[in-house]
Design a protein that fits this description.
The complex is a heterodimer of chains A (about 525) and B (about 1000). By secondary structure, chain A is α/β, with parallel strands linked by helices. Chain A is built from 16 helices and 18 strands. Helices cover about 35% and strands about 15% of the residues of chain A. The termini of chain A are far apart. In chain B, the strands form six sheets. In chain B, strands 1, 2, 3, 4, 5, 6, 7, 10, 11 and 12 form a ten-stranded mixed sheet that branches. In chain B, strands 26, 27, 28, 30, 33, 35, 38 and 39 form an eight-stranded antiparallel sheet that branches. A six-stranded parallel sheet of chain B has the order 15-14-16-17-18-19, with helices on both faces. The chains are: A alpha/beta (about 525), B alpha/beta (about 1000).
Chain lengths: ~525, ~1000
């Protein structure tokens, strides 16, 4: 038998409906059949998948796990049976472009040190992107999209670009490295095991890259869709695994700040997920006691999606001893400092819960645990500069010019929809303050209010400032205290033609809502 | 006015001008009814009045407190807060306007002893050079016979609590009677220097109430000051009534949040980084525990479950929401907390490690009545150990409950080997710095109560009360000598050490115990509850290994789980008196034999040979000290016949068992111990305590050749090793000794050398100390029980019972039977099911003075005023006299108050002819575990046919209830001076119980 380049490992559980398309595309791929092997790692399918594979693709090796041992362990079991130089993990609800393996080869040639490459994943009908690069926040919430559209990432990622992690749905990794780093963490069961693996590879001194030329089409949440498990069951694993991966991968000095912050935010998400099912008046000391505040059984109702956050923390405690043992091994073998990994996160302060309230809580907690200080040297704030005209002039131009030296900027009066989610701060200059309705991002707002008076702010803008502004700037020294009094937030005096005050720069690094004057 | 109960050092004569000025601040909210007692006692203080300002800080009362004080106590200054600012900010407002150089904070539901303030001030002035700026007064209950505050401590996640709260004063340990350093003084009665109070920003107003005193004391220590306890300053505190004035789900927000506040502010960066994550994860554990309690099925949250997804809301206990809100309020307060933290940490003058000893029991699991189940305890210990928190506290001694199955060597009661074993393990741990609470069987103490120290008497245990003792004490570690002590314990959430003591099953064989399968079952069930095991010798280790394997301990874990601690005694060996060589001629060689007569022991060959030899040579004597076990019904085997033979021998003197001190006096004046026993399996495995005791006393032993310790005795030449069946050899040894008694003296010196080098408890305790210092729960603990439960599933009766069991399974003892209870609990229409959470009944009392204006405000039920009585705890009784109107009295219905928590234990109802009756007409005991708050409980008894016109007495007791785990009954207030027939502790008291009589037909 000749050398096998790629061992293609397909974890499968009752995937009969997907396998014909997937296998057909693999068979049609443009790569020598004798230089690849196919391994289906079957998690106890009862839908005839295994028999079908025997009949139609008899060369496929089947690893029968007998039961659902999870995605992570399923992949590991397949890897243990593999003989190729590279392992390729492929979801069963995909079809591959015929050039996909060559795509890996080309990308890996760009970066000889890379040991892992992620495919470019698109939706089944090729209309949307599924994975074209990775990002994550400091708390381990990985995302399948990189930050694009900013000066530092103006274009989509190219072949060989470094990424934090490759999507477990379609990726390749050197078999020896996979074994040496311990593979996917079986305790994750499913979800975020790919983020954890990528992160760990970087910590251990390896590199993970994007293979734009390796195109894989992925069904609309194939193992998901109509059969998708309800969110409260998935979030139990999401939440636990995010905490688990930060516990494993950060340096001790960083974990000291990040872990308590992550747990406080976990509690916050638990509460916010309960929505309006909680009547806070029943829990305050001074609010009147209702005769029978809860049901006749003395119980109150909470949605499972809220409780699942608590269960996730409980699960984490159960897992903690082995996580910490794993952490000890990883940190002892560390080859790259966190500060070299932070830039790969892309969006360290992306909120992982909708709405400005959570974003605000997260930023405050991040500030208090000095997490901005942790990453600000390595990850710049993304400031969306709002100016009245396409080409700012005068004062706005001067401010932009002065800030450009430190931060990435964009300017456009309406907030561009593609940039909004990844903005860390809105900086409205020259009166280009968005209305409350136009605030399509949870980012806080700093606004130059020169030319306005506190008493004569249009209602829609007044409401935006109330909701979102954390810093006001004015050239009019006399008006500053009036602004502070009217809005309860800090107003710094920024005379024309003078470099920005330290306060503005500081705010750009530590953007928070409603910073009240001390 | 009661006199101080505990006379302190002589107080200097009061001379005006020598005492500093003090402002006593009494915070009041609608507490007018308390103020006469409180202010009256303050005006009676023997403190120079010119130096004393009494300041009533009113938190916006809407009763007429302020006008009443102005009228009746015109000398009292009044400061009015516009609204109820809470405890912390309310007191701070007083601190800001006070004129005294010292501030004394006093709850309004107290009265103080006449010398209260002089004691407090004298105490701090005496310590001024030690940076003491604050001291806490001793607080007793209103009657002065139970402890309220004798010291404040907390566990690592800042759940503060009061040491020995509710303990009868009579059982008070000596340490509470001396001045000592404290982490914090109770905000209810304390003294603090005004300038310091203001400089450190006083109580933290963000707390509103609860733990602000913990935070203040802790902060003082961090900033380099000291806080003390002044035991001679006595405060009487009304404390908690019950009544649902503040539902516990509201209180819990404050407790949980404020603990986070305090720990976030006060720990150093390094400690906080380990402790804050653990605190937040333990909150989640408490939340999940509440989910279990209300029957939330976590398997529905499994990704792989095949159940249909839930669409609606999950019914959960309100406390789950309390925990979420505590987290939310902490997050909301974080910016100002961070500023406070920065100020404190910048000014830090003392390390956390220096403060740690003040925490008391930093790793304690169950707190503020938050009953811990085993799963919670697992999580607690896992976090402690995995996050390195245990390491922060390993230097701190642990609180250990040592459960002895037999007599301890105290109070002059003859001890057994097992009791001495327990004592030795405990003393070894004490030598390592741990606090050991010794518990011995109540049967062993019976009739000798006065001889036994109060601390041990208070822990006298039996199968019925042991669980209550464990729950109340909540030690860090339990050490039990012998596995059978674990059988009565349903809940042992803390790590447990089981000293296997002896091969038990073999001993039972000699008692014709034929039910070995049951014994084995019980033994496995007991081993299943323990985490670490010790035994006495290597042979026992091999014997126990397969037992432990069956209890789920894997072979790979055996070395770590099972340690050998030989039978050991004190390192202070007694002096043995030996005749000088020339005196031997006039000294009969004295042989001894001592110990309990047990059926598996047969010393006949040795003793008969010895007695016969002595009779023949008339050259020495034999003293036998022994008898039947003090309280166990154990047979005496061959001993009766043996003793009869020996008593016939003129060279033999037979005495009974005697107290350890007398026995040791006899041993140290004797010369040789006859220590031969017929070989049998039990003896082969034994490492006999009596042998070590002989050696320890300086007696060389004639010892059996098969025993485990025989080689050691040979090596040290500490005796003579012979085959106990070889009578000629025995005789040869005896004759040699009689011929050359100086050789016995030489070997006696060796005996003590052997003990000193190998068998003193300071040398042998290491393995146990290591576990106690760093306790854990082993992974497989509970596996046997789980397996058996799984096997027994389906045996549960009716559906409603099954639901009940499922809902309570986290807390109920497994054998709990709902059947009889269901029959007697008639739930009233308005009754809502009591939340099962353990809540701080005590907390309600703390808050009440400034929230609802005092104790147990009566509530209106169906137009009638009612209030709940104080907790019904051991040693107390609630009674009601009544006259039956008709014949056929067959039941009494009373209304239960549970303090809105789950209580354990039982309550007993007795129907008597009158309060002094010696015999009850009927009794009834009901478990309190599932009694709902406000439930009507029916006590049924056979119809009293002649009841018409007769009077009776209902007496209710709870012999095993402790504060925080007790129910009570509802009562109707009475007009002062009129008797409603209600009794407290047998004394007529105004008002009446809420009760109803039931008649047959």
């Amino acid at each position: 038998m000749g050398k096998i380049d790629f061992s293609i490992i397909i974890p499968n559980m009752n995937g009969m409906e997907h396998l014909p398309d997937c296998c057909a595309s693999l068979a049609a791929a443009d790569y020598p059949a004798d230089r690849q092997e196919w391994i289906v790692s079957d998690n106890g399918s009862v839908d005839g998948s295994v028999g079908w594979l025997h009949d139609h693709y008899p060369r496929t090796r089947i690893v029968e796990n007998g039961r659902n041992i999870g995605f992570a362990s399923g992949c590991n079991a397949g890897a243990a049976a593999a003989r190729g130089e590279w392992l390729v993990f492929l979801n069963n609800d995909t079809r591959v472009h015929r050039d996909w393996l060559h795509g890996y080869v080309r990308a890996l040639a760009c970066d000889p040190q890379a040991v892992c490459a992620g495919s470019y994943m698109r939706s089944w009908d090729d209309s949307e992107v599924d994975f074209d690069g990775a990002a994550a926040n400091l708390f381990g919430a990985g995302q399948q999209r990189p930050v694009v559209g900013w000066p530092d990432r103006s274009a989509p990622l190219t072949d060989g670009a470094p990424i934090l992690f490759a999507c477990g749905g379609a990726m390749c990794i050197r078999r020896d490295v996979f074994a040496a780093v311990g593979g996917f963490d079986p305790s994750f069961f499913i979800y975020y095991e790919d983020v954890d693996l990528g992160w760990r590879l970087w910590v251990l001194g390896h590199r993970v890259i994007f293979a734009r030329g390796s195109v894989v089409y992925h069904k609309e949440g194939g193992t998901t869709g109509a059969t998708r498990a309800p969110s409260y069951r998935r979030y139990r694993l999401f939440e636990r695994n995010m905490l688990a991966l930060i516990i494993k991968n950060y340096e001790a000095a960083h974990l000291d700040g990040i872990l308590p912050a992550a747990l406080l935010l976990e509690w916050q998400r638990a509460l916010l997920s309960a929505g309006d099912t909680i009547d806070r008046r029943q829990f305050g000391l001074r609010s009147p006691a209702a005769d029978q505040p809860f049901g006749t059984d003395g119980l109150t109702g909470l949605p499972p999606i809220s409780l699942t956050h608590l269960v996730a923390m409980h699960d984490l405690v159960a897992l903690l001893p082995e996580l910490l043992a794993e952490r000890a091994r990883i940190q002892a073998a560390r080859r790259r400092p966190d500060r070299e990994i932070f830039p790969l996160l892309g969006r360290p302060f992306a909120p992982q819960f909708a709405g400005p309230f959570y974003a605000d809580r997260m930023r405050r907690i991040a500030e208090i645990f000095d997490l901005y200080g942790l990453v600000s040297d390595t990850v710049p704030s993304r400031i969306l500069l709002l100016t009245p005209a396409d080409e700012p002039t005068g004062r706005a131009a001067a401010l932009e010019h002065l800030l450009t030296a430190e931060f990435q900027l964009r300017h456009n009066p309406p907030i561009p929809a593609d940039l909004a989610p990844s903005a860390d701060l809105l900086l409205a200059l020259g009166g280009a303050i968005p209305t409350a309705a136009a605030l399509n991002t949870p980012a806080p707002l700093a606004a130059d209010v020169t030319g306005l008076t506190p008493t004569a702010v249009p209602p829609a803008i007044h409401s935006a400032l109330r909701q979102r502004a954390g810093l006001l700037i004015t050239a009019d020294a006399a008006a500053a205290s009036d602004w502070e009094a009217a809005f309860g937030i800090r107003c710094v005096v920024q005379p024309p033609d003078v470099p920005p005050l330290a306060a503005l720069r500081h705010y750009c690094r530590y953007p928070l809502h409603h910073v009240k004057p001390q | 006015m009661a006199q101080p109960l505990l006379p302190g050092a002589a107080v200097p004569t009061v001379v005006a001008g020598e005492w500093p000025t003090v402002t006593v601040i009494v915070l009041n909210y609608n507490g007018q009814r308390h103020l006469d007692d409180c202010l009256g006692s303050l005006l009676a203080l023997d403190y120079p009045s010119a130096q004393l300002e009494i300041l009533l800080v009113d938190n916006g009362s809407d009763d007429d407190s302020v006008a009443w004080v102005a009228k009746h106590y015109p000398s009292v200054h009044i400061h009015r807060n516009a609204a109820n600012l809470g405890f912390a900010a309310g007191n701070n407002a007083g601190g800001a306007v006070a004129t005294g150089t010292w501030l004394a904070f006093l709850n309004n539901d107290t009265r103080v002893d006449r010398a209260w303030l002089r004691e407090l001030v004298g105490s701090v002035l005496a310590d001024a050079d030690r940076d003491v700026v604050c001291t806490g007064a001793k607080m007793l209950d209103w009657a002065g016979d139970r402890l309220d505050f004798v010291g404040g401590v907390m566990n690592f996640h800042a759940f503060g609590y009061q040491l020995s709260y509710g303990l009868p004063l009579a059982a008070e340990p000596e340490e509470y009677r001396v001045k000592r350093d404290l982490l914090f003084a109770c905000g209810g009665a304390m003294l603090i220097r005004t300038d310091v109070f203001r400089a450190v920003a006083g109580f933290d107003g963000d707390f509103f109430a609860f733990f602000e005193d913990v935070d203040l004391g802790w902060r003082l220590w961090v900033l380099g000051y000291r806080v003390t306890f002044t035991p001679t300053a006595i405060t009487y505190h009304k404390g908690h009534g019950t009544a649902g004035s503040i539902p516990h789900h509201r209180l819990m927000v404050l407790f949980e949040r404020n603990a986070l506040f305090a720990l976030y502010k006060n720990y150093s960066d390094e400690w906080l980084a380990r402790i804050l994550p653990a605190a937040l994860l333990l909150m989640a554990e408490r939340a999940v525990r509440m989910l279990h309690v209300t029957g939330v099925d976590l398997s529905d949250y499994e990704l792989t479950t095949r159940h249909a997804a839930q669409q609606g809301l999950e019914p959960v206990h309100p406390q789950v929401v309390s925990l979420m809100l505590a987290g939310d309020e902490f997050n909301a307060a974080l910016p100002q907390l961070a500023a406070k933290r920065a100020a404190i940490q910048t000014a830090r003058r003392r390390s956390d490690a220096e403060i740690a000893p003040l925490l008391g029991q930093p790793t304690r699991i169950a707190l503020i009545n938050h009953a811990a189940d085993t799963e919670y305890a697992h999580a607690h210990l896992r976090l402690l150990n995995s996050l390195g928190i245990a390491d922060l506290f390993t230097a701190q001694p642990k609180q250990v409950l040592l459960i002895s199955p037999d007599v301890l060597p105290v109070g002059g009661i003859p001890s057994s080997g097992v009791g001495l074993r327990a004592w030795a393990l405990g003393q070894g741990l004490i030598g390592c710095g741990h606090h050991v609470h010794f518990a011995m069987p109540s049967a062993a103490i019976q009739g000798r109560e006065a001889l036994v120290p109060a601390a041990i008497r208070a822990l006298a245990w039996n199968a019925e009360n042991l669980q209550g003792l464990v729950d109340a004490l909540s030690p860090d570690v339990i050490v039990t000598v012998g596995w059978p002590n674990l059988t009565p314990l349903a809940r042992v959430p803390m790590p447990v050490v089981c000293d296997l003591a002896g091969p038990h099953l073999l001993e039972r064989d000699y008692q014709d115990y034929l039910d070995n399968p049951t014994n084995a079952d019980e033994k496995l069930a007991a081993l299943d509850k323990a985490d670490f095991f010790t035994c006495i010798g290597t042979r026992q280790r091999y014997y126990f290994m397969p037992w432990l394997a069956q209890a789920g301990i894997r072979a790979q874990e055996m070395d770590a789980a099972l340690a050998v601690i030989p039978y050991s005694l004190s390192p202070d060996l007694p002096d043995h008196s030996w005749p000088v060589p020339s005196e031997w001629a006039n000294t009969p060689v004295t042989f001894v034999y001592g110990g309990v007569f047990l059926p598996w022991q047969d010393p006949s060959a040795g003793l008969d040979t010895l007695a016969n030899t002595l009779a023949e040579t008339a050259g020495g004597r034999l003293r036998v000290f022994g008898g039947k076990h003090v309280f166990h019904a154990v047979q005496t085997g061959v001993f009766d016949a043996l003793i009869e033979r020996l008593q016939a021998n003129p060279q033999v003197e037979v005495a009974g068992l005697m107290p350890i001190a007398e026995l040791e006096a006899a041993y140290t004046h004797a010369h040789v111990a006859m220590d031969l026993m017929r070989r049998n399996p039990e003896r082969e495995l034994a490492f006999a305590s009596r042998t070590v005791h002989y050696l320890w006393c300086g007696l060389p032993v004639i010892h059996s050749h098969y025993s485990e310790i025989a080689p050691l005795i040979s090596e040290y030449e500490a005796g003579w090793i012979v085959d106990p069946d070889d009578r000629p050899a025995i005789r040869a040894v005896i004759e040699a000794i009689l011929a050359d008694p100086a050789e016995a003296a030489r070997r006696g010196v060796n005996a003590q050398r052997l003990v000193r080098e190998r068998l003193t408890w300071d040398r042998t305790i290491d393995a146990l100390d290591r576990f106690v210092r760093h306790p854990y729960q082993r992974a497989g603990r509970g596996a046997v029980a789980a397996h058996r439960q799984a096997g027994a599933a389906g045996a549960i009766g009716t559906k409603s019972q099954a639901v009940g069991i499922a809902q309570h399974s986290a807390i109920l003892p497994p054998s709990f039977d709902l059947g009889p209870l269901a029959a007697v609990v008639a739930q009233t229409a308005r009754q809502r099911r009591s939340p099962l959470a353990q809540v701080v009944a005590r907390g309600q009392g703390v808050l009440r003075p400034f929230l609802s204006g005092g104790r147990a405000r009566p509530v209106r039920v169906a137009g009638e005023r009612r209030f709940a009585l104080d907790e019904l705890i051991a040693g107390h009784s609630i009674g009601q006299r009544f006259r039956a109107k008709q014949a056929g009295l067959c039941g009494i219905e009373v209304t239960v108050a549970t303090f809105a928590r789950l209580n354990s234990g039982a309550v007993t109802f007795a129907l008597l002819a009158h309060p002094g009756a010696a015999q009850a007409l009927a009794t009834f005991t009901v478990p309190t575990t599932t009694l709902p708050d406000g439930a009507a409980l029916v006590f049924r008894f056979p119809p009293q046919l002649d009841s018409a016109g007769r009077s009776y007495y209902l007496m209710v007791t709870a012999p095993d209830a402790v504060p925080g785990d007790a129910i009570t009954l509802w009562a109707r207030p009475g007009r002062p001076g009129t008797a409603g027939g209600r009794y407290e502790d047998g004394v007529p008291t105004p008002g009446a119980l809420v009760y109803r009589l039931l008649y047959d037909g």
